[in-house]
Amino acid sequence: RRTAILISGRGSNMAALLAAAAAPAFPAEIVLVFANRTDAAGLDTARAAGIEAAALSHRAYPGREDFDRAVDAELRARNVDLVCLAGFMRVVSPWFCERWLGRMISIHPALLPSFKGLDTHARALDAGVKIHGASVHFVVPELDAGPIIAQAAVPVLEDDTPDSLAARVLRQEHVIYPRALQLVASGRVRLEAGRTVSEARTS
Ligand code: GRF
């Protein structure tokens, strides 16, 4: 399935998805990397991998939905069927969510439903949790609240800082995001009535 990855910065999750999608049998073909900032470092990573990269500055649009409609036009122009938000630091509008419901997934650096929102690693340390991690989920209008597709857990260590914890979580993000995209692109997992539904294992 023709897939676009939306980024805002470094794009390490995007790079992990590109690497996984390079396998011939992978069920998703990355046809576009799109950023809401023209200086997103991940755009160069995509171009170096031979993937089309485009950017629109969200500041050039009066409202959130105006920007989202411009993004939607970019996606439709390339017959994109699946969207991966990967470090895309924008809250997508309800209009965009409805339009891509069930065909848009995202990664969050925490074990949802814990620690929705920003600064998840510092908040996890402040909360004194012993287990932290990452979640891939379907995107719904409510922030970080979509049905979960995949998760990975990591231990929180005594001497952890937000950066050391973030690095441990990020390594797992790069494992679960490609797995989640494979599950959704292959149809093994889908969004149905607000829940993730998995096809019974046939093999
Ligand atoms: C990652 O922790 C991701 O979970 C969050 O943004 C961070 C940067 O991701 N959404 P990336 O390196 O830009 O993929």
From TrEMBL:
Taxonomic placement: Bacteria, Pseudomonadati, Pseudomonadota, Alphaproteobacteria, Hyphomicrobiales
Q: Where is the active site?
A: H108
Q: Name one GO cellular component term.
A: cytosol
Q: Which reaction does this enzyme catalyse, per its entry?
A: N(1)-(5-phospho-beta-D-ribosyl)glycinamide + (6R)-10-formyltetrahydrofolate = N(2)-formyl-N(1)-(5-phospho-beta-D-ribosyl)glycinamide + (6S)-5,6,7,8-tetrahydrofolate + H(+)
What's the protein name? Phosphoribosylglycinamide formyltransferase
| Coiled coil location | none
The residue range of the signal peptide is 1-27
State which pathway it belongs to. Answer: Purine metabolism; IMP biosynthesis via de novo pathway; N(2)-formyl-N(1)-(5-phospho-D-ribosyl)glycinamide from N(1)-(5-phospho-D-ribosyl)glycinamide (10-formyl THF route): step 1/1
Please name the gene that encodes this protein: purN
One Pfam family, short name: Formyl_trans_N
Similarity comment: family membership: Belongs to the GART family.
User: What is known about what this protein does?
Assistant: Catalyzes the transfer of a formyl group from 10-formyltetrahydrofolate to 5-phospho-ribosyl-glycinamide (GAR), producing 5-phospho-ribosyl-N-formylglycinamide (FGAR) and tetrahydrofolate.
| NCBIfam families for this protein | PurN
Formyl transferase N-terminal domain mapped to chain residues: 2-181
- The EC class name is transferase
EC number in record = 2.1.2.2
Binding positions for (6R)-10-formyltetrahydrofolate?
R64
Output the HAMAP family linked to this UniProt entry.
Answer: PurN (MF_01930)
> What's a BP term from Gene Ontology annotated to this protein?
'de novo' IMP biosynthetic process
Q: What residues bind N(1)-(5-phospho-beta-D-ribosyl)glycinamide, as annotated?
A: G11, S12, N13
What Gene3D superfamilies is this protein classified in?
Formyl transferase, N-terminal domain
- Which source organism? Lichenibacterium ramalinae
